[in-house]
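REQUEST FORM: STRUCTURE PREDICTION
Request ID: SP-0412
Submitted by: Lab K.M.
Chain count: 1
Length (residues): 125
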Amino acid sequence: MRNLHELDQWRITSADIKRRFGSYGDMNAGAFVVHPPGPDLSLRLKCLASAGENWDHVSVSPDGPKRTPTWAEMDWVKRLFFLPHEVAMQLHVAEEDHISIHPYVLHLWRPHAGLQIPLPPRHFV
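STATUS: Completed
RESULT:
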């Protein structure tokens, strides 16, 4: 994951964020509102990012209409928060492990510690 200070222009520094999380974040964590490219200049995505417990994680939800992010929006967020050579994934865990506290949030994950996400053959991607 990028050093999140690179994204400080989008970092949320409201009193509510400080109250909820104890700070505005640092190079490994933070809350952000980003504006993806496209014709809808009012579109904003809320992102919570963290790097810890051997994982990078970014949760993404539109700020406004109740809908899940599109594939294009998630792809753009991946490129914003992760380095070009890093692979990130969305997971669909076993039913007994599924926890959903917000119906319109999608997540990106990347393991640390030399763990690599297995990839299908390149011609399948």
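NOTES: Residues 16 and 22 are 10 Å apart (CA to CA).
Reviewed by: T.R.
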